[in-house]
Specification:
heterodimer, A: about 450 residues, Uridine Diphospho-n-acetylenolpyruvylglucosamine Reductase, domain 3, Vanillyl-alcohol Oxidase, Chain A, domain 3, eight-stranded antiparallel sheet, five-stranded antiparallel sheet, 17 helices, globular, B: about 475 residues, alpha+beta, Uridine Diphospho-n-acetylenolpyruvylglucosamine Reductase, domain 2, Alpha-Beta Plaits, 4 domains, seven-stranded antiparallel sheet, 16 helices
Chain lengths: ~450, ~475
Amino acid sequence: MSASRTIALSQLADIAGQANVSSAPARLAAYAIDGHTPSLAVRPGSAEEVAEIVKLAAREKLAVIPSGARTKLGIGRPPRSYDLALDMTRLDRVVAYDPQDLTLSVEAGIPLDRIAAELAAHRQFLPLAVPFADRATAGGTIASGVDSPLRQAYGTARDFVLGMEFVTGDGTAAKSGGRVVKNVSGYDLHKLMIGALGTLGVITRINFRTFPLPRMARTYAAVFRGASAACKFRHASAGSVLRLESLELLAAGGAGSGPLGETAGFPFEGDRWIAVVSVAGNDEVLERSRRELELLARGAGGSSLESFAEISGEGREKAATYIRDYPAAILRHAPSAAIFKISQLPTELEAFAERCKSLAMAWAVMMRGLGPTYLALLMRDVTKESIERLDSDRLGVFLPDERLPTFSLLFAPPEVKRDPNYRDASRRNLALLENLKKAFDPSGVLGPGRMRYEI
Amino acid sequence: MNSRLLHDLKKLLGPAGVLDQSEDLMLYEYDGSVELARPDCVVFPRQTQQVVEIVKLAVRHQIPIVGRGAGTGLSGGAIARQGGVVISFARLNRILAIDAENQRAIVQPGVVNSDLSAAVEHLGLHFAPDPSSQKACTIGGNVAENSGGPHTLAYGVTTNHVLALEIVLPTGELIRVGSAAMDAPGYDLTGVFVGSEGTFGLVTEITVKLTRLPEAVKTLLAVFDSVDDATETVAEITARGITPAACEMLDGWTIRAVEDYVHAGFPVDCAAILLMDVDGLREMVEAEAKDVAAVCAAHQAREVRVARDARERELLWKGRKNAFGAAGRLSTSYYTQDGVIPRTKLPVPLRRIGEIARKYNLQIGNVFHAGDGNLHPIILFDERNEQQFRDTVRAGDEILEFCIQMGGAITGEHGVGMEKDRLMPLLFSEADLALMRRVRDVFNPAGLLNPGKIFPTSKGCGEIYVRPQQTGAGPTASA
């Protein structure tokens, strides 16, 4: 270890306590991102300690990456440098929960399942059915910007995060928003923190609006032959007066995609598209929703509708877990998969699905009813040839986004992420974005290079 | 004002596109708040490119630029506090595209809020944010202020419905942020832009979400003999997990003022009413209306009336939406506050507002977006009485200070503007404000866009001028 690292280590120990600082390679390996392992890790116990640590990092020019349960560190560009892992898991308190007011304030490192348990006692929930929900923290979920199937009814974090506290790159504790459900006092800086991967600030506290748990919910699966019928069903049901809790279109194809079908509980094969839709409400609403959804499925599918049925029990659990956990479920089967998120309009889904037919490698797709689409290309190994194959396959489905940013590479082997073909093509508003980064992080110590355009 | 700039502006827009005579400018020196400042000129671009050219000219001459929609705002957002060029978006008022399948519309900033909903009604859609001024206010203004409205309780405020923007920066650069498709990758510039009160850039095009109209709506009027019973009803409706589409409260004084003016059918001898919408699927609406009525009854509601038809529903809502106009009939001027508190604590600030009214010997009426804890106390005053005006501003500040003490905020939907800037330090630390200033400087480094807004200046409230004409009595100035 270099002299400066030794000094940093002792200063970190002064801030967070010896027991919460580590420089042991075995411990540090757990914080690695895309092949970069930090040389130090620290677990602060308070927002004040976080501020002190970031101040130290800015002074010593140490690149800092905050993390929670480390389930989604694969999302983002490979860091340009990475010296200090800032483990937020000791900031795990519920700061305030007012069930009557449907508002909740938590520290960033709290696991989502603890929040869920606490809210469930009051028949409330956060509509964050996100990947790795059994381990993921609130802060990591928000900072990584992952979305949830429940967005169909409840929106995304942008719609129900009321305010935040965070530490900017100069070690200053700041906040925006508040704890009330309606508020336009000052700029909505917390919106910038969502999906920013900790590159603008280290989130220390998040204020949420909570929601009453629906009394009853049902899930239905409509199995279609061909994407066209499935997309027609999407348009008909999303355009109806029914209130859908979630709506996803699923498909997978190619050799090796079979096990995914077993996980999801659906027999995937190339041209079979499965619409999974959930509704909630009282008995009358549920009964009517079932009736109308079935009619819509028959109308959209005609003879291409293989089946329409409620899924319950184990089948429902499998489908819900597959959808919620999408990237995780894919990565378990295909650790080298490249998983893209594509931002597209609902009317663009059908043409996209048709293009998936041209894929040579095994693939899996999940389209949200609202448009955002996940495409996994199931690479088996990471070689120069397989990366080339991936690239030619990918270009058949969607093109580099030169004009408008339209896709992100979420999870992929570092070799793929570093491939020049996967650097973000669009440079839209680059100077502005760089200046924004500087306003929050003047010395560039927060996750340098991690954000889009390698900011 | 610089005659060269004026000459260039007239050359660009034609003589009909520029106002610079003082009798014309008087119409642009105020909005719906109690603030006042006269611009040096008002310009009316018809094309985006003209906005770009105006901005370049003004910046070259180092003259402040202030965007303005319909001027219905309630915090002085569209007032040229330091003079300069007001850019009126009144003529950039076209709906550029309606995409029913994807539930999107692209509009110019001068499109009137309710015109968009009217244009898509035949498709079974609407633009959900519904400020009470929606028949006059523009969507560009809604974006600048992140406006709310009664139905934002269930549907969310403006920011929840804006996906992409075209913006003219003070450099004259025309940029696009966000995309019509959800989840445009990268930092959420759209999210931070909405509600920036004209201090980041001038919006020239807005891509919004359209929302499906509900199959059924029921409007309930609950009448109470005690304000506490009404506020406790709201708390329990929220706590039971019922989310009405709207949940508004009017106190007895306001009810009587409204009834005198609109004849909405509100009982004039009660202490408070709750006006609530439940909407959605027929089956759900029936059940929720029953649940709501039961909660009202459990809290001693004297009467719960369900509007029988659309006509009665519209009349009841007309009563609510004209509450501010009704106040304007009773007083030469009034001052509306916009504090927010945790909604379960509603009874407490109401009592405090009563104390403050007695302390300053002022009449204060109360209209609340009760369901989301957004208070709109209306303080009546006579602007010819300077002491009373000062007391009014002081009373307003005390109400907002109390909201902050309760864990709330100083503005729920009207914006900070030049009205509440001095209160920002009560809510935000110097570090918070410094960061916000740095973010503003990223977009607007020379500070020429809407200067003197949001951030506290060294001047106190003595700077607020009293408007010579009656304040905001028209139907457009409301919340």
